[in-house]
């Protein structure tokens, strides 16, 4: 694949990349040795990856639906035709973008995040933690050497947060990243996200439900596996035993966050 940065970026000293996941996703990673990329239409954010123009159409459609415009009776037929045309633009545009883009997402932080534990896991879950430079040194060569006639473009970088919604028809957004998967509304700023993305051509919209990048033998990687801060000791010990055959038990550590018993 052709690999590029979304835009130049740096990490602060002491920052790590964290991926919070339940045990099923974690063991899928351990067993398959692949990074999982979810299709953008599976994300909670309905505006994920959409262009400013398309978001503007959605905003205009919301105004129309709420009856914000006073339309004379003689103009209603043309008005309804325009509404239907806009609806098709939104549906097709959203489908072309969100079913052709796939993302693998990480949290940037110096330490664990209660917010991320609570949002993306349960008390039986884990988080894997990599040094950013080390993770990039692993992922980028793998992406560059990956060959597939459909998956040809690979991007990576930090997500930028700005005022996406409510949409402003008079003020242009202040984000200077040209890649839409790396722009999100400020309401998601707590995610402090770094992501890898892959894309297929628009004519293949809907063909793939996900993408998996072969990752190699993770037992050789320098990373840590953090147990959820609410995981009970006996579950932690069981998990440690389960990881022994994969030479990963030494990488499992308890959370350093303080919680109520």
Give an overview of the whole structure.
The protein has 261 residues and is an alpha+beta fold. It folds into two domains: 2-45 and 102-253, no CATH class; 56-95. The chain has helices at residues 23-32, 52-65, 76-98, 114-120, 132-145, 233-243, and strands at 2-5, 16-21, 34-39, 101-109, 126-130, 153-158, 160-162, 183-185, 193-199, 210-214, 223-227, 252-253. Strands 1, 2, 3, 4, 5, 6, 9, 10, 11 and 12 form a ten-stranded mixed sheet that branches. It has a two-stranded parallel ribbon with strand order 7-8. Strand 11 (223-227), helix 6 (233-243) and strand 12 (252-253) form a beta-alpha-beta unit. Helix 2 (52-65) crosses helix 3 (76-98). It is globular and about 70 Å long.
Key traits:
261 residues, alpha+beta, 6 helices
Topology:
Layout: E1 2-5, E2 16-21, H1 23-32, E3 34-39, H2 52-65, H3 76-98, E4 101-109, H4 114-120, E5 126-130, H5 132-145, E6 153-158, E7 160-162, E8 183-185, E9 193-199, E10 210-214, E11 223-227, H6 233-243, E12 252-253
Parallel strand pairs: 1-6, 7-8, 11-12
Antiparallel strand pairs: 2-4, 2-5, 3-4, 3-10, 4-9, 5-11, 6-9
Helix pairs in contact: 2-3
